[in-house]
Specification:
By secondary structure, this protein is α+β, with helices and mostly antiparallel strands. The protein has 2 domains: 186 residues, Immunoglobulin-like; 164 residues, C8orf32 fold. Strands 1, 2, 3, 5, 6, 9, 11, 13 and 14 form a 9-stranded mixed beta sheet that branches. A hairpin with a 7-residue loop joins strand 7 and strand 8. Helix 3 runs antiparallel to helix 5 and helix 4 packs across helix 5. The longest helix has 15 residues. The radius of gyration is 24 Å and the shape is elongated.
C-alpha cells in the first residue's frame, strides 16, 4: 500500500481589495518519489508564472474575462522563455500576451507540475503582493520540520491518521519582496539532519566507484608524491587545473554529482562533480576526506534543508586539522582558505562519519 503525502490548499474567496490569491494543491507519493503540484491563481490581471528545473509542466488551463464574456486561454499560446542567469537553478517563465484593446477585467488560471523527487518539496517562495494559504497533511508516521519568515503564520492539527500543518501568508505584511518557507517531510522517528544526510549520501553512493582506468590515472597523477599529503596536494592541483568548471544542470543532476569516472574522463563538471571526484580520489589515496556542502551567502539554520546549500567543497583532515579545498577556484591553493568560505558552516559527509564545522580564519596557514 502506497504512502502518500497530501498537500491541500483551501479555496479562497476573492479579496475585497483585489489582491491575487494563490491556491496550491500538492500530492507527493513517498514510495514513487514523485510530487504532483497544482497551482490555482485568481483575481489576477496578468498571467505569468515560473518553474524551476526540478519541475515539469504537465497541464495548464485558464480563462480571462472581457466584460461578461469568458474567454479560454490556450496552452499553446503561452510565451515560454528560460533564464539561465542563475546557473545553479535556471527558471522557465510562462506568460500570456494580452492583445491591445482587450485588457481583461480578471484572469484565473491553473497549472500542474511534476517533481520526480519528494525531497524537492523543500521550499516555497511567497510573493509579498499575494495572499497564500497552504495546508499540508502527512500520514501520522511522518512529520514536517520547517523554517518560516515571521510574516508566515503557522499552526498544526492532529487526527488519528494525519498530522496537518497550516501555513498562511497575507499580502503586504512585510516590506521585503518575498517570504520564504523551508520544509522537509521525514519519518517522525528520524532526526531531520540525519534524514537529510542519509538521503544525500545515498545519492553519492552510486557515483563513487572508481574504475581501474581511473585508479591508474590517479596513480600517474600523484606518482612524484612521497607522502599522503604530497599525493593529496598533487591530485588537488590536477583537479583544480585540469577539470573545467561547467555549471549547467537540471533535474536530479542539480543535487546529485556526476559519476567520478565520467568527470575524470571528460574533464569538466560543476562544483559537486569536481568535489566528489576530489573526495573519492583522496580516499583512494588513503586520506580522510569529506564531501562538504555549504552556502556562500548565508549559513544554514539548525536544520539542513535541500535549499540550504549552494556550493560544494572537499574537506581533507590532515595532521589533525581540516583543509577546505575548493577545486573550482583557479586561484585557490592547497591549505589556504578563500575569503568567500570564511565563517561559513560546512556539512561534511562521508560513509564513516557525518559532522559539521565552522570555517574559521585560524584554519588558514
Amino acid at each position: 500500500m502506497r504512502i502518500c503525502l497530501m498537500i491541500f490548499l483551501s479555496f479562497l474567496y476573492f479579496c475585497l481589495n483585489g489582491q491575487e490569491i494563490v491556491h496550491i494543491s500538492c500530492k507527493a507519493d513517498l514510495d514513487a518519489n514523485q510530487v504532483l503540484e497544482s497551482y490555482y491563481h485568481t483575481n489576477v490581471e496578468q498571467l505569468q508564472f515560473t518553474l524551476d528545473q526540478t519541475q515539469t509542466l504537465s497541464s495548464f488551463s485558464g480563462y480571462y474575462w472581457k466584460g461578461k464574456k469568458r474567454c479560454k486561454i490556450k496552452k499553446k499560446k503561452l510565451n515560454v522563455t528560460t533564464d539561465f542567469s542563475n546557473q545553479n537553478n535556471p527558471i522557465t517563465h510562462y506568460s500570456y500576451p494580452i492583445q491591445k484593446g482587450k485588457e481583461p477585467s480578471k484572469i484565473a488560471f491553473n497549472y500542474e507540475t511534476v517533481r520526480n523527487e519528494v525531497m524537492y518539496l523543500s521550499a516555497f517562495q511567497f510573493d509579498n503582493n499575494k495572499t497564500y494559504k497552504l495546508d499540508i497533511d502527512v500520514p501520522n508516521d511522518y512529520m514536517i520540520t520547517h523554517s518560516v519568515d515571521t510574516s508566515i503564520q503557522t499552526s498544526a492539527k492532529k487526527t488519528e491518521s494525519i498530522n496537518k500543518y497550516i501555513f498562511q501568508k497575507q499580502a503586504g505584511i512585510e516590506t521585503s519582496e518575498y517570504s520564504i518557507l523551508q520544509l522537509m517531510v521525514h519519518l517522525n522517528t528520524s532526526d531531520p539532519n540525519d534524514y537529510f544526510s542519509a538521503w544525500y549520501l545515498e545519492l553519492l553512493e552510486d557515483q563513487t566507484e572508481l574504475s581501474a582506468e581511473s585508479k591508474a590515472a590517479i596513480n600517474e597523477i600523484v606518482k612524484t608524491g612521497a607522502t599522503k599529503t604530497e599525493k593529496a596536494k598533487l591530485f588537488y592541483q590536477y583537479v583544480r587545473d585540469k577539470i573545467q568548471y561547467y555549471d549547467v544542470e537540471s533535474g536530479i543532476k542539480m543535487v546529485q554529482p556526476e559519476n567520478v569516472n565520467t568527470v575524470l574522463r571528460n574533464k569538466y563538471g560543476d562544483c559537486k562533480d569536481v568535489t566528489l571526484l576530489l573526495h573519492v580520489g583522496l580516499q583512494y589515496l588513503g586520506c580522510n576526506s569529506y564531501f562538504g556542502l555549504l552556502n556562500l551567502v548565508e549559513n544554514p539554520k539548525d536544520v539542513y534543508y535541500l535549499s540550504s546549500f549552494n556550493h560544494a567543497i572537499c574537506v581533507l583532515e590532515d595532521a589533525e586539522q581540516f583543509l577546505f579545498l575548493d577545486a573550482t577556484d583557479q586561484n585557490s591553493q592547497f591549505g589556504k582558505i578563500s575569503k568567500a568560505m570564511i565563517n561559513r558552516k560546512v556539512l561534511m559527509l562521508s560513509k564513516n562519519e557525518t559532522k559539521s564545522t565552522l570555517i574559521l580564519p585560524k584554519n588558514n596557514f
